[in-house]
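At this stage, I put together one protein's amino acid sequence and its backbone structure tokens, which the following lines show:
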Amino acid sequence: MYKDLYKTVILTFILVFNFSFQSFAVEKFMFSEELSKEEKEKKLNTLTWYNWDNPKNHKTLLKRPNAEIYILENEYYLKGTKDINQYSWWSFGQEDIKSDLIVFSSDQTIYVRYVDDGYVTIDDWKSINPESLISEMRKIQNAWRDQLKKEGKNYIEELNWIFKPTFDQEKNTIHVSYEGLWNGKNGKYKTMQTNSIVLGRKGHLKLAFVTSISNETTKLELEQIANLAKDFTDGIDFLEGSKHADYKSGDKVAALGIGGLVAGTLGVKALAKVGFLAKITPFLIKFWWIILAPIVAIAGMFNRQKKSPRKRKEIDYD
């Protein structure tokens, strides 16, 4: 009797385990060129796309940072590690278990990641030297150029600021934007990326904004596109008790101040403490925005009707 009961329990456990494993299993492969558009859409439709059906302006809550992000009617998003990780495998052939949110629109793709390293001090902001930062960024790319050429891959020929690192102390946000001039198997082309940081009490949100541009995109247009990041962060609110201003003595303090954090975000070790960049793999140093750039095109497979973007500051959030 007890043997039969034991057997039943074991079989039940195995069935539940297998079902759970299959339910959460991630397909670890990248979409091939041979896969049809319809087949890709079928797989993408298995993910939970928020604000796709009956889209509207609303706030979405990120529980870990205890922060709300305002989403516009023309934006849709993936939320949670499982769907984001699966999307990353299908798109790039590698995992993404760090992003908490990916927001898509006709204008840009936005990665949002919460880092709970503690309260970030702002005392070292004045130590940031934009020219030293861009110089270090160029050295990193130059160091990889010969290898990338040898492998037949695209490489950076020039990096320039669109706007230098800026800190809005009232909103506790940092913004930086840069363009890259590329060469290689795809010929000469331009890309841009804007990074933002929003400070909270126990950590910070890191945001990467990826936008599709062309070789004809003017400097003025680049600046206008980069300013969309500032508009997006206007719609981010750490809730009561989790704001940067809510810091209390005894709270965990991050190892890096704001200066080192900005340098680390750009892949630069000039201001970062020893050991910090050891967390950044050589692959990410090489491709810290190549990884992101194709997402706009893949998201576009859904053929969602594009709408004119509205600025968050023109909307009454409450």
